[in-house]
Each structure stands twice: as structure tokens, then as C-alpha cells.
Amino acid sequence: MDLIHPHSKRDVMDALRGASAADTRVLIVGGRQHIDKGNPSEADAELWTTLLDDRIAYDPAEMLCVVEAGMRVHDLRTMLAEGGQEWPVDGPDDATVGGVIAAGVTTVRQLRVGTMRDTIVEMEVVTGDGRLVKSGARTVKNVTGYDVHRLLTGSLGTLGTIVQIALKVRPLPKTARTLVINEGGLELGRRVLDAVPLPSAVLAEPDRLVVRLEGWPEEVEEQAAAARSIAAFGETEAPFPEACFPDATTVAEAAVVPSRLAQLLAGIDRYRAIMGVGVAWVPFEDEGALTKLRARAAELGGIAPAIRGPGGLGDAPIPAPEVERRIRAAMDPAGILAPGRTWST
Amino acid sequence: MAALDDARTELVAALGADAVLHDPLALRLYARDASMVEGSAGLVVFVRSAEDVVVCMRVAARHDLPVVPRGSGTGLVGGATPIADAIVVVTAKMDRILEVRPEDRLAWVEPGVFNLDLADALRPTGFTYAPDPSSQQVSSIGGNVNTNAGGPHCLAYGVTSAHVLAVDVVLPDGSVGRFGAEAPAAPGYDLRGFVVGSEGTLGIVTAACVRLTPLPPAVRTMLLDFAEVEDCAQTVSAIIARGVVPAALEMMDRGIVRAVEDFAHAGYPTDAAAVLLVEVDGLPAAVDAQTREVEAAAREHLVGTIRVAADDTERALLWKGRKSAFGAIARIAPHYHLHDCVVPRKALADILAGVYAIAQRHDLIVTNVFHAGDGNLHPLFSFDRSVPGTLERVLAASDELVRLCVDAGGSLSGEHGIGLEKRDFMPLVFTADDLDAQACLRAAFDPDGRMNPRKVLPDGARCGDYAAAALGRDGALPEGTWI
User: Fold this and answer.
1) How many angstroms away from the CA of A144 is the closest CA of chain B?
2) Secondary structure (3-state) at A228
3) Residue B401's domain spans which residues?
4) For chain B, which end, N or C, has fewer CB atoms within 10 Å of the first or last residue's CB respectively?
């Protein structure tokens, strides 16, 4: 396995141009936190983005920051905290910003802060054949040209190397509290979701419920009281969100509409579900359990890719295979970027 | 035009004579949208279902004819202006709200549903559809999706893209696909995200699955007036710097306030240099806290009076003032040209000074009403096109204005789109490689270059045969194309 460890965008361009010419298959690697996501794919070389970690611009008054894609989530968090702000995306500390984006990471607090994909306002990407392509703009709002960055988000490194991103950030909440109770289940989760106005997250496990509240102190006080009118919540200082089944070697991330979570998870004894969103993480011991979960998700109009361990993405059909094939060809004409890793092939 | 005649015969046979118009009046009416560009329509087809759209696409493909989708025709940049005798496919009659599912926080709607009608229909469920373009009484969801429409409340809630979970699309070859999903994740690339904002150049949206947003428990609307435009602009940044993201943060200058006040009688102060309309929402406690911060920020910047809407009636009145701005300007002059540049927030004061200077230099009346919180300007030149030389002055001023905004780190359009009007400015913000990549990705959906050709990308953006195919649609663009 060859290693490409570029210091600059120019290095990335040269390396990928060369790889395309030589038909070298390349796996793009950030912090290696989401490396398991995707279908099996063979590579001749890894391209590490971790040296591309410069801060390009950050002005809190604009609620935007521009960073290179190899910057670690932890470093970005520290940088933004100095401006009293955050990138409202719940990625692991060691992940790179580009990795979080390419992996399409689910935002746990999306009821309140929105989804990760909507935070990306500008992107620079190096295509499989070494062209530098920019889309978007460094403004909070923009409809100038095609949003190439939309395609890159969640593309698992199959359309190009994300090298730089402008992100929409937001003020850190004035206060944040995490309520917890050792009672669980989706039914209780739903009741809490109905009772608490504008929570950041309500996470349900079979025997545990976690409610994340963020905002102005008086507001959070009111929300906590509403939650406690449903159940006798305690409180925790643990970081939020907690790691998801850290002991499990394999975890699937199922996605269905919120009202079908109960059908999806019936009979499953370990899960963590985001109420009102419809995402549930399920650890599984063997391929059989994953296959069953996937079949059930498919019946319910959803999917269940593995995000840790083997298992791949599953075989859900994509809506326009020819369009996706041509998108691939436009961005990676030689087909060297993680062939087979994403849904489309 | 044998191909067009054959297409008409086939469309009439499939959809009925009343669905296909080709009389001179209809062709003239549908030759333009709300911009000033006039094109030429070959046929006008009113579709009632996705199946009808498939028929249109197949007929157009068979005869190699261009297709231009059209919603309500309220677009301001010529996005729905047909060129080269295109088939105009009007989705206005597909106007049903198909399904509302509060438990899943989503609704399915056809493209012809008016934005405001959707919001009104949702209100009893405790939810709303958050994007609220100023055209919301008459603009349709299909058009909103295709322009990635914004609106005053997008500051806190995000633009259309954040509120569209899935779209059903008919591609130019007549095949259909659902991009995105009701579920929070979908297999494949985010084609949904690429289609939203694509200005009808990739396919025709026949249904949209939209996200429902809970109505805020409390809302407070304030009108702040300032003796200096600069203080008003700086208050915008000062509010954000205090960690407050209001639901809406709208600025209006004296010219527009006077026009609006004569028209809407909302009690706006006509002696102020500029006013800010600020709305905060959330839980009652959060609303109180945000109000305090907004007031403090405004006082630092020499606010005159702070008027807080006492009740829903007063709140509606304050918003009426803002939302009737584009109706009110008809009192100034018969024609207007509205810009939509977006700039970094901190550049607002300088850019506004620049806008006034440009208007003065070209002897034009300019008024400003815009989404200050987003840095999304809407300088509006009012003029009378029939006065010789006026149009040329407007063009020259517009050109300077766009360059001023780009030089300040801004972008061409915040919410109206590129269409025909801004197309040739694209090289100001994108390199040839950027534009080539965009052209190739567009061609992934439309290999023959028949969907709304010549829009968005300048003619120089090439992607192999695609550019040739698209260019072959017509030679000259209509007169005054980009105004």
C-alpha cells in the first residue's frame, strides 16, 4: 500500500493526476473515524489529508469559518469556541472535518441545529484527475451556480478529495444540560418529545432516555421542567453525545421515518434512537442480524448501512444509476477513487 | 418548424387540446417570467400529473426540442424565459397538497402549490413550512425548489434546501426518480441537494416532500429606526456578535420606507434614514432574552425608537410594510430592476454607500429593502423604460453593482438565481475549471442539453459534446438578455 501525504492542494492535484494516469486506485483518508462506512473497496494507495489542516479564515461576526479539510474536529471546536461559536455537527474529536463531510455523519442534535449538509456553504475539491473545483460562496446564503458540494457530502471519497470548506457556524448555546433517566423505550421517548418544546435531542434506548437541552438559561429551565413533568429525570455532566456502543465491534445506522421506529426496532434489545428524526443505531453480533434489520428497514422505506465493522452499505437501489454513473465519470474519469465503495456501483 | 408541429400533434393527442396552447397570445404571455427578458415559446403545455410530464419529456426528446419548466412565473432572472421556441411546461395546475404527516414532520406537495397556501394549510397542525420568499402569496413550491428560494425567516431556519427532504423528478429522457427520501438518509449521492436550486436545468419536479418546522411558541417583532444608514447596518453585526440569531433581520432604507408607508400605512417612520425589522422567536423566556440583547445592540448604535409589536395585529402590520415593498415601488416608476447580490455582513454599510454612489453616478432612483442578517442585498433601481437611454444607464449601474459586491467577497445571487440575467457574470466568481465541472455534472442529468438550455452557465462552460449540443439550440440570445 502506497502512502500519499500531501502538504498542499497543489500536492493533492499532482498526486491524483498521477494516480489517474497510472490507474492507481486511491482511498482518501482523514482521521480514519468513518473508514468502515462503505462497501468493500480495494486500493493501491492511501491519500491522507491530515497535513491540510490550516485555518484559512474565521470571523465570528460572519458566522462562517473557512478551514482546510484535514483539520481535526477537536481543533475546529477549539478555534470556534474562542469566537463563542460552534460547528453544529456531532462528529468525533479525532475525525477530520473533510472526513465528517465525506462520510455524511448524522447530526444528533438536528431537531434544533439542522443537518450537517446544510452547514456547508463553499467547498474546494480535487477531482480524481487532479482538477481543483470550487462551488458555493463564502456567504451565509447563495444560489450562484450548481452546488457541487452537495454531491461530495456523503460521497465516501468517490468523487474527489475535499481540500477546503467554508462552514456556517452558530453561537454556542448560552447553556446546555443533559437529562437522563434509567427508564426507556420509544413510547416514553415519544411522550417526552411531545412534552418538551424545541429540544436539541431526545435519545431513546430500551432502558435509558437522554434529553439534551440547549439555549438561554431560562428557556432550558422551562424545558427541563416540561421533561420532568413526564418522568423523574436526573442530570449528567457527561459529554454529549456519548460514544455510541463503544464496546460493539459492529454498528448499523438505520434511517426510517420517525413514526416507523417502533416497527423497525421491535424485538431488538440494544439500540439508540433519535426521537423525531428516525435514526437508530443498532449493534449487531452477526451478519444475520444485520440482514434482518436491513430487510425490515427496506420494508419501512429506509436503509441500514453499517457505520462500524464489516457489513457495508446494503443493497438498497439508487434512484438514477445512469445519472450517478455519469456524475462519477465527470468527477473521476479514470475511476480510481475508492471503486465500489459507495452505493452507485 | 415541422418538429414543433409534430410535437404539438402528439401532445394534443396525449393530453387533450385544452392542455396545449400555441396561439400567439399564449406564446407571447409565456415568453417571459417576472424578469425583463423576453424569449420565444414554441408551445405551452399545462400538465396535471407526473405522467403528463413524462409524456412532454418523451415527445420533446423524440423531436429534439428544448423544454423549459415554469411554475408561477415569478422568477426575476429569466430562469423560466423560454428561448429557441422551447416547449414551456407549466406546473401551475399540479396544485394539490398530497399528504400531511405531522408525526413524521413531513408533507408531500405538488409543484404548483403556492408557498403561502402550504404554510396556511399546515398551521392547524402546529407546524409550518419555514421558507417564506416575499413572493409567497403567488410563488409555487416547484419554483421555490428550483431556485432554492429564501425569504426573511431563512436567517434562523435556512433556505429551501434545508426544508426539502425528497423530490420526485422526471428527467429529460422521460425516466422518473425519487431523489432523497422521507427517511433521514437515502442511498446514493445527494441528487436531491443538487436538483434543489438547479433552476429547471436538470429535470422537472413533480412532487416535493417538505420538512415541517414546529411553530415557535412565542414570537416578538420589533421595528428599530436609525438616523444614519451606517448605524443601522452595524446594528446587524452587533446583534449577531451578541450570540443572537434572530428569526428575521430585515433592513429598509428611507426611499423604500416612504413608498411602503404611502401604500401599506404600517406606521413606519418616514423620517428615519433606515429601519430594521427584527423578529425573534422560541420559548417565551428565550424571546425575552433575545429582545434584551437586540435592544442593547441597537442602543450601542444610536437607535431612535424601538417599536415592539404589542399583539398579532400590530405584528402583521409591521410585516405588511415589509412584504408589500415590491408592490409599493410601482408608485415610484413603471419599471424596476432588482438585484440580489450577497455580501459578508460586515461589508453591508460600505456596500450600501457604494450602491447610493452608483445610483447617483447614473442618475437613477435606488431603494433598498433586504435580508440584512444574511448579507443579502436587494438594491432596486426604479425607472421608466420608455425614456431613451434609461435602460442603458440601468445596465451600466447593474454591472458596477455586481462587481462591487463580488470585490467585497460576495456572490452573484442570494436567492433569485442566475437564469439568463447573471449567467455571463459567472466567470467573476468561478474559474473555467469550476464552470466546466458544473457543465459536466449538469450533463449527467441532461446529456442532450435540452433542459432549459442557455441558463445558469455562460456559453463558454464546456463539457465535451454537451456544450455543443446546448449551443446548437440557438444562436443569438434575446435582446437585453441579462437585465
Assistant:
1) 6
2) helix
3) 332-407
4) N
